[in-house]
Design brief:
The complex is a heterodimer.
Chain A: E1 4-7, E2 12-18, E3 24-26, E4 35-36, E5 38-40, E6 50-51, H1 53-56, E7 66-68, E8 80-81, E9 87-88, H2 90-109, E10 114-119, H3 125-137, E11 141-147, H4 148-159, E12 163-171, E13 176-184, E14 187-196, H5 201-220, H6 224-228, H7 233-238, H8 240-256, E15 261-266, E16 274-279, H9 280-286, H10 288-304, E17 314-318, H11 325-335, H12 348-360, H13 368-375, E18 378-380, E19 386-395, E20 400-409, E21 417-424, E22 433-440, E23 451-458, E24 470-477, E25 483-489, E26 495-498
Parallel strand pairs in A: 1-10, 10-11, 12-17, 14-18
Antiparallel strand pairs in A: 1-2, 2-3, 2-4, 5-6, 5-7, 8-9, 12-13, 13-14, 15-16, 19-20, 19-22, 21-24, 22-23, 24-25, 25-26
Chain B: E1 12-14, E2 19-21, E3 24-26, E4 42-45, E5 69-80, E6 83-94, E7 105-113, E8 123-124, E9 126-127, E10 141-145, E11 156-166, E12 170-171, E13 176-188, E14 194-206, H1 211-234, H2 241-256, H3 263-282, H4 286-300, H5 303-317, E15 322-323, H6 325-337, H7 342-353, E16 357-358, H8 364-371, H9 379-396, H10 402-422
Parallel strand pairs in B: 15-16
Antiparallel strand pairs in B: 1-2, 3-11, 4-14, 5-6, 6-11, 7-8, 7-10, 7-13, 9-12, 13-14
Helix pairs in contact in B: 1-2, 1-3, 1-4, 1-5, 2-3, 2-5, 5-6, 5-7, 6-8, 9-10
Classes of the chains: A alpha+beta, B alpha+beta.
Amino acid sequence: MAFIGIHLGDSRSFIAKLDDRGHPAIVSVDGERFMASCVYAPKADEGSLIVGSLARSSLDHEPESVVQHFQGDMGTDKTYRLRHGMELNPVSASAAVIRKLTQEASKELGPIHEVVITVPTYFAERQRKATIEAGTQAGLKVIGIVNEPTAAILAYATQKTVRGMVLIYSFGSGRFDVTIAKVNGSEIECLTSEGDSELGGMDFDQKIAEIIDQKYAERFGSTLRDALGLTSEEDERKSPAWQSLLLEAEKCKKTLSKMPTAPFNFYEGPDGPLKTQVTRQEFERAISSLIAQTEMRVETALDSLNLSHDDIDEVLLVGGSSRVPAVKESLRRQFGKEPLEGVNPDEAVALGAAIYAGLQTDKGNLKPKQREKLSKVSVVDVANHNLGTISVHQDEELGSEDLRLSIIIPKNTPLPCSKTKTFYTMYEGQKFFRCRVTQSADEEDDPDFVTIIMDGELGPFPPGRAAQQPIEMTFSYDLDQTIHVRFRDVNSGMVLTLTPGDKQGSITRVPDFRIEEMEEGRSKNTPKEIFVPDIRLEYPTDL
Amino acid sequence: MANNSDNSGCLIAAGVGAILFSFTLFSDNGGAGLVVLVIAIVLIVMGARGSGSGESTPPAIPSSSPLGLQLMVSTTADRIENQPVKMLEFHIKGMFSAHHRIARPRFEFRMADVTDSLSAAGDPVLCVIDDLQDDDSTEFRFKQNFPDALNAGSGSMEWVRFVGVPVELLGFPQTGNRQIKVSLKVTDLANGQLIAAANAIWSTRVEGVGYLGMEEEESEAQAASLQLAMCIAAADGNVDDDEVAVIKNWGDKSVKALPEARRMSRHEALNDALSEATREIRASRLFQLEADAIEVLKNKGEPRFLYDAYELCLNVLKTDGEAHPQEMAQLTRISRKLGLDETKVRILTDRHLADVEFKPVGDASEDDQILGVTDDMSKEEIRKHLNKLNKKHQARLQHDNPEVRKKSKEWIDRISKARVRHIG
């Protein structure tokens, strides 16, 4: 039986197996150690979906037939309308990638039935569920979902000697994660994660594209965007010229990781070819705010555990973007030490997922050597989100009743966990009790800004009951961050259990402004002379 | 004697469930279980002549007179929605209108503290319930047309419980042992002429701060609130007509809410405050003015004053339909210095600024203002502050609503750039 781990990456995906001795190993796909997470939909009569580097190479001439970077859209109802009338969604595109990976690997390993799939830590319930759905669509049983940084440290800790507080710095093409774990040999205890979907290596490519866009304007008088008539991200996605600029930008980024300058030749501009170069200095200036963003995430993770940079014993790099010199330099500056080396930062996640597959399977399935190797391995992960509910808060001073968030399982609680909290009905004769489950990455106290992942009603209660009837809410997280909730009316014994996706509605009001975001700010622009008219109140004359 | 004892009328729970009106006839031997605390009866029967006649001191008529109108005040313990409530009850008895054949008599009750008042009429007792207020002020004034239960022209020889008011809904002028004069006038609705009147004195002990004591505090708080509002109005360098209108309107309303006798002093106090604010702002002492006003409000220690002031500031800010970064920063500074609860502030702010357009920020210094980064913050303070903001918006990147995600992305971009500028 094969134990398979899949690293479903935003730009590249990997598949790994656990060998007979219990060591993880990458399985090649199309002769390469990775596969581009890219799907090309040909014309209906030209066969089925094409996945991988071949699909990616179609980007610069047929971008409207290609889907990539769909992982960020997981759990949304986004649809990609492709050129030949084909429609894909994030789940079906992911399923295509998973299917291709397992099909290729089964040539070497025989039929594959069960897999572990990795996800970014920031993935909430709906995104994890969508990932499992993608695996199922690919005809597989998903026996575990594991966080990418957890998988990476698992791969590292089982192959190298590492001890103490480890910061796993995971910088992929479409995500950024900081995880802090306590490691003792093969025993891993994750303590916290700070993840981000809006930051990744593609943003670096985008910055280079913008540098070139400016250089194009200096040379030809108008930016490339203007020359191509691109006004939206969607225009850019569909423009072959812009897509080929991004592909060139990625190459340029890789060159700049090794050289102080990189030549940049661009032939697709409507005004003529542009032959120029990008210096590392230009690049680093352009990405400085992105680097600042990563530093803030590191600090937030440290702060949440009351740790300082000095408390971190080792820094482990994961993901291709961690190769950018400015990233390494930023880490050196923050921690005053060199990051750990030894495991390929791209492959570590898939390798860890294969180990995790061995841990998740029934022990009887393991070969003796595998069992021996894995017997020492233990992983404790933590809840990556605050799980809570929305309750009514009565304020006597304002005379108002407003909705407040009550956190029931706080972020960073070790998994598995289960907590019960009692709430009360508000009115005499109350018939129903609204049961909402919220998930949030920060301790948002504002129900408008959290995601309601489940929503239901408990009831109808027996008529004529007094107010203040106790309702017990029991929330639990499984090992793989799956959520279970149970609402119980104590006096009648009535129970409501909800599963993710049970939703009757959600709050849609979105105020676009929050005052607490502005701290002490002294107006620097107060003009010296202020016009003030004389103001006199009028004495009431209506009597 | 209990001839009319089944004349109990309707029981109406009104408003917040706190007021009970009822007409209950009960016998002299105390069948209804009321505890009569104080009785003082002055009874008159007057000819229906000039309308001014009610103001003159009426001749006392013995309570036993079958022709007089008598008023009795008592307190009882009642329960409303299962909560114990101390009720003040008014009872009447008498054959007041027999020889006038009045078709439409109207009863009107007032209350005033006459313990040591300078004016003969005393300081009025206020009431928080609209239905029990004077038309033009918050003074207690209960008006009731002659109930059908009573026979016009014959009245009642029994005590009639006329009305009950929860004591805690009354506002007394001063604290301690007080003499409250309750007066009843009966007028003819048809021609407005006074037919009968009766007074009673109710001795009671008032707990807490009387409104006269509070009024002084309120006057100072309102003055400071107006000054604070002037600071907000002046922040953009120009106090325009709309802003003036909002400020004036608030001041006018504050004065008008008072009983007439005390309007003048409040009117003057608030006008003085406005003149002072105008002077200070013209002399470029805006910050000092703001700091002083905040100090005054804070010293009052009464949350109602603080939130009223903040709400006025919001109203001034939104007059032009726009919120500029420096205005928002100023508002935040004020709310913090007043020590307001963040959640309540947010609720108020959301409610008021829902339709306001938030002006985008252009350059770095504006970015700093919107982020709340100031010159006097240390590098470490800026770092922590930005991290906190960043964490919040990072969390929102996962929100269901794409608009929220988009806005958070903009915030994060702004925060990251500020970090590069300040921390490097």
